[in-house]
Amino acid sequence: MSYKVIAVVGPTAVGKSDVGVRLAQLFNGEIINGDSIQVYKELNIGSAKVTEAEMQGIPHHLLDYKNVGDDYSVQQFQQDARKKIEEIASRGKLPIIVGGTGLYIKALLYDYAFTKIDTELNEYEDEDTEELYQRLLKLDPKATEVIHPNNRRRIVRALQMAESGNLKSEQEAEQKHEMIYDAKIIGLTMDRTLLKERINKRVDLMFEAGLLDEVNKLNEKYDWDMHGLHGIGYKEFRDYFLGNMTLEDTRELIKTHTRQFAKRQYTWWNNQMPVKWYDVLKDGYFEEITEDIREWYCDQKTD
RNA sequence: GGUUCCUUAGCCAAGUGGUAAGGCAAUUGACUGCAACUCAGUGACCGCCAGUUCGAAUCUGGCAGGAACCU
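^ inputs. structure came back:
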């Protein structure tokens, strides 16, 4: 029997967190964070993390539970989130995944499988991308079909897998590419131009809310190559602290990166998963969502 | 008023006679272990007009706009 779960997805700044909480209130649910940066403690303002007040007493999981220096990745998210789903569902509550990290949510919902890789052994630092590609071509030619020759990062990963004894192509061939949960994927959207304005405004608000102070503290405590500091709203400050960029330019760069991110998120959700979109600027969109959920959740529950 | 220099895609910018590099932005897309990552596709009547030439973004003249200096 597969658990019922809801996933609230969409581009950054549409208002996913709020909808998630309201749905949790209505359907006796708990939230599981599906955002790769909000898992980190101390990254609050820049990651647009929900505040205690906004949570309205609804439990939020996988949020604010990692240290900035901790590595984190899909596989760990998948593992942790699946455990949480089981736990929440077994308490008779509805798990609601809220987040914008497409890969994470897809890996959670689908039967993505991850095996062990020995990353320590292979750094490949002194080989150029073309050589690596040629090597992969010999070890796992099939994987090569879906990785562009310039995409070093993906090539390295496939190579690491191949040299650890698991061909990436084989591993994927073994999967059914099906969802392992009975998931309802709710996509929140709005007019693109307005979303951009909203993003710009939100970044300004972050600065007003003390983003610089937050980053100042991080700068004193951590190195800039820590995983958590790779997030938009943080990484841009590196050059600022190095004296290479003005604060104003940093702010504009964050806006640009956030807008580009939103676009990438749309591309993902539109093409990777069966999302039903709801326009949050339309009257009654929330009622529409709740109706759809009722149909899918409550009715069948009484069977 | 005079002298010199500048004008190439939304922005920065190579290119000095053979039919327009590159970067950023924008836009579209890919994505199975860094994914707020990484990667790919897409764009120009070279300020305007006239001339020289087989051929001009490139040379000449004029016009317009801009910069610096001089008076």
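Residues 89 and 95 of chain A are 6 Å apart (CA to CA). The first strand of chain A starts at residue 4 and ends at 9.
thumbs up if we can close this ticket
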